[in-house]
Design the sequence.
């Protein structure tokens, strides 16, 4: 939304176009799960829980699984990989984040960190076009190192 930008000039710095990189394997889009997680599923140091809501992370992870709280002990490390929105949320629920914000939310701050402060929405729209230009110029367009055009 335009109203979320300080002014219209600021908004134009975020407009443009670019080639979006995707992972393709055998003509199909490759997911992180298929590429990295599935090959590692047999490892003894990996546990994957689906439909689990992480409530807090430390050396003991508190999760809600099938409606019940459960505690899981980590021996070495915990990888927080819950996406753009939920990873900062988990860290903040665990007391890692902007101290003032955590206190406002009645969460005891453990580590004062700028978690989530640089987040902004990346609204995208797919637009396919057919260019009627020479082959030499097409190559220049698609091999450009500066893929994003700012208006």
Sequence:
């Amino acid at each position: 939304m335009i109203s979320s930008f300080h002014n219209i000039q600021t908004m134009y710095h975020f407009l443009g176009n670019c080639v979006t990189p995707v992972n393709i394997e055998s003509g199909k889009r490759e997911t992180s799960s298929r590429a990295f997680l599935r090959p590692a599923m047999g490892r003894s140091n990996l546990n994957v829980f689906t439909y689990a809501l992480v409530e807090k992370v430390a050396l003991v992870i508190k999760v809600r699984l099938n409606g019940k709280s459960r505690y899981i002990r980590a021996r070495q490390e915990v990888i927080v990989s819950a996406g753009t929105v939920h990873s900062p949320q988990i860290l903040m629920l665990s007391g890692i984040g902007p101290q003032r914000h955590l206190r406002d939310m009645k969460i005891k701050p453990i580590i004062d960190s700028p978690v989530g402060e640089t987040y902004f929405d990346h609204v995208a729209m797919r637009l396919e076009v057919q260019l009627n230009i020479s082959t030499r110029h097409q190559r220049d367009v698609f091999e450009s190192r500066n893929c994003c055009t700012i208006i």
User: Anything to note?
Assistant: The CA atoms of residues 66 and 115 lie 29 Å apart. Strands lie at 16-17, 24-25, 28-29, 52-56, 60-65, 68-73, 96-97, 111-112, 149-150. The first strand starts at residue 16 and ends at 17.
